[in-house]
Amino acid sequence: MNLYISRSTARGTVTAPPSKSMAHRHIICAALAEGKSTIRNVDLSQDIAATLDCIRALGAKAEVNGDTVEISGAGKNLALKTDLTESGASAVDFPCRESGSTMRFFMALAMLTGRPSRFFGSETLRSRPFGIYEDICAHCGIEFKKAADHIFVEGRLKPQTYEMPGNVSSQFVTGLMFALPLLNGDSTIKLIPPVESRSYILLTISALAKAGVEVIEKSGTEYLIPGGQKYRPVGISVEGDYSNAAFLDAFNYIGGDVRVEGLDSASLQGDRVYKEYFEALKDGAAELDISDCPDLGPVLFAVAAANRGGTFTGTRRLKIKESDRGRVMCEELAKFGIETEQGEDRIVIKDCGLKKPVEAVCGHNDHRIVMSMALLLSLTGGELEGAEAVSKSYPGFFEDIGSLGIDITRG
Prior knowledge:
Layout: E1 3-5, E2 11-15, H1 20-32, E3 36-40, H2 46-57, E4 61-65, E5 68-72, E6 83-84, E7 90-95, H3 100-113, E8 117-120, H4 123-126, H5 131-140, E9 143-146, E10 150-154, E11 161-165, H6 171-179, E12 187-192, H7 198-210, E13 216-219, E14 222-225, E15 235-237, H8 242-249, E16 257-261, H9 274-283, E17 287-289, H10 297-306, E18 310-313, H11 325-335, E19 340-342, E20 346-349, E21 361-362, H12 367-380, E22 382-385, H13 397-403, E23 408-410
Parallel strand pairs: 2-16, 3-15, 7-8, 11-12, 17-18, 21-22
Antiparallel strand pairs: 1-22, 1-23, 3-5, 4-5, 6-7, 8-10, 9-10, 12-14, 13-14, 18-20, 19-20
């Protein structure tokens, strides 16, 4: 879908979308409980739809009514819905679409069942790093292999100590934290410093606690997970999402006047830091470390380009998102006349002054790139290709910024 965005200024009040990160976590906790849970304020993005499909594969039931999801948990009866593999053995299929969170969370849960499990998703998703799970599987005698169109896992996790680097995706840690409490014995997760994206680990611990599951944080790098625990049903409302709210609040730093409501000031979300970072970019060419908030990278680059530039460190993990976000942002910013420098773990956005692109800018099938481009096009005008990618996390993004006065025309 192509859109033309005219020069226009955002003004008004908008409600932040629900947190995708917390919706994933609450839905999975509910699926592992015995009994019915009610999760309110859920935005049915493509990523959340993938997680709902996967809890159904585990044997849970989910009914969606507007922004409310009613879940009947599988409890001990995991993975009742099965198909047959070519060899005739029963298998559980997990349709993960393009959701990295979903695939990494459910791989650990699949290792609870001992059943052969197949993880399907886009080629981009399947090409992301899964080395942590490959190492765990090798250590536990679990089969892990990549096929032409899926990833195959078969075997059972064991209660033990799991040691892994702390500077890889926290999604591996979260997946284990979901699964390990259901084993018979105690387990420990040890992270080798430095630890990045620790805030996402804290979000997981918070969601587990609400479902009656205990994780004991012995230090910032060591977590004890008692075995033999049970998830209890929950009735909960998903909090507002700082990650996506950043794209709304960013209009305030390019000449707009927007009030974003629905955010919890006491939230554990690490992307809360965006306000502090925006202010630093507005004051001057700041140097910012985004190793703990990589999802903010594209919008921070856009705000830097619209102001006085900036230097960003901790950019290494941008390569393994829905796109190589560092590289493609530099490519697209060049269309606005912005010069950049890109290193292994560092990106510099120079103060060049925005120009109207002479060709369409591309969203690279990445929701955060699309939203960043829309922000800049509101200053210059221009065409945006691939706008439909916002459905991955924020389906209502263009409706929301349209309500604020951003002039959008379908191509």
